[in-house]
Structures are given as C-alpha cells and as structure tokens.
Amino acid sequence: MSELFRGAGVALLTLFHDDGSIDPGATGELARELVDRGMRAVLVAGTTGEAATLTNGERCALIGAIRRATPAGIPVIAGTGAPSTRQAVGLTGEAIAAGADAVLAWPPPGGLDTPGYFNAVAGAAQGRPVLAYHFPRVYPPGIPVSALAGLPVAGQKDSSGEPERLLDELAHYSGATYVGSSALLAILAEDRGRPVPARVG
Questions:
Q1: Kind of pairing, strands 10-11 and 42-44?
Q2: Burial class of residue 193 in the structure, from the number of CB atoms within 10 Å of its CB (0-12 exposed, 13-18 middle, 19+ buried)
Q3: Residue 141: is the preceding peptide bond cis (ω within 30°)?
Q4: CB 177 within 8 A of CB 153
Q5: At what angle do helices 85-98 and 114-124 cross, to 10 degrees?
Q6: Largest CB tally within 10 Å, which of 25, 34, 45, 51?
Q7: What positions carry a catalytic annotation?
Q8: d(Cα 144, Cα 83) in Å, to the nearest integer?
Q9: What structural domains does the chain harbor?
C-alpha cells in the first residue's frame, strides 16, 4: 500500500469558544495556515486534539470543517481509537462519513485481540487507510513491531519516544512509519550520520 504522505504532519489542537463550545471554523483556519507553512497532513481528534472531551458530533463537525479548509491533496486523518472495538468502529464510520481521508487508531488497553480490533476498524474505514498508533504510555501495552506486518494497516505512528523501537521498525517493518517526536528523529539522524528516510515524518 502506498504511503499516506511524506514529510511533516501536524496533530492539530482543537480551538474552543469562550463558552466551552468547539470552534470548527477557527480550527479549520488554523489547519489551513499550518498547511500553508508546509504541513503535509492534518490529524484531527488525536491525543493532542482533546479527543477524549469531544462528543461524536463535535468530532464530525471538526473533521468536516478541516476537510473543507485544507487542499484536497493534504490528507485529513481522524483519531478513532477507543477502549472497545464497538466504539472504534462507530467513530471510524462517522469520521469517514464526515470527510476523513484516513484514520489513526490506538489499540484497546491490555492488548487483547489486536488483530481483531484492527480488522474491525479497517472494515469500518471502507477502504480508506488505517494507521496503527503505538503510544504505550497512554495506551498500554502498545503494538509490538513483530505484530505490525499482520495488521490491515497502511502504516503506523510511533509516539513512544524510544530510539531502539524506531530502529527496529526501520529494520523490520516495511510499512510507512510516522514518528511523534521530532527530537528523536534529529538524534537518530545525527547518530547514524545520514538523513532519516523520508517515509518517516
């Protein structure tokens, strides 16, 4: 499967009105400004985007506003991970209907039936790319590198911040790898004496 994007993507903040309601218009304008500055993808309702505090309707409103505000060639990725398969399937279907080009799903806590979980999410994504999210500090235990190749995903985002894990991924996983730590990329590039592969964004 081809890579979803190359380069830097942004995990977008959600902007709110003073009364605590979301501001989809302003959030969409922020996304467009960041794309104008060079971002190659926009992640909505990820762990940076207050997803746990949003209703399903608010998530959809944000996805729709950001999709309308950004150029067609820039993928809008929706965070749809959830504690249960049923919840993740529902969030994924709603995100696709709202205009998401792809989804980012973290596995349920405890690592129970990770393949079944991602198969269900991929089905709900209706052919759109799914990225697996490895963030063990927030969603333990995360996804072993050895399991990635068996999942129906287009790639993964690794926010573990572990250099050894990233080296293992680059050596043993052929899918796209996106890294949630720019500092980690800089350290690896310096340590290895060469640029980090472009597929790591």
A1: parallel
A2: exposed
A3: yes
A4: no
A5: 30
A6: 45
A7: 133, 157
A8: 18
A9: 10-192 (3.20.20.70)
Q: Compute the distance between CA of residue 80 and CA of residue 95 in angstroms, rounded to an integer.
A: 8
Q: What pLDDT does 187 receive?
A: 64
- pLDDT, one tens digit per residue, over 164-190 is 999 899 899 999 999 988 777 776 665
Q: Is the pLDDT of residue 197 over 70?
A: no
| Residue 196 pLDDT greater than 70, yes or no | no
Q: Residues 101, 75: contact at Cβ < 8 Å?
A: yes
Q: Is 122 within 8 Å of 150 (Cβ atoms)? A: no
Note if the pTM is more than 0.85.
yes
Residue 96 contacts residue 131 (beta carbons within 8 Å): no
Average pLDDT, the chain: 90
Q: List C-alpha distances in Å: 158 to 19, 27, 60, 78, 178.
A: 35, 25, 25, 16, 6
Q: How far apart are CA 87 and CA 196, in angstroms?
A: 36
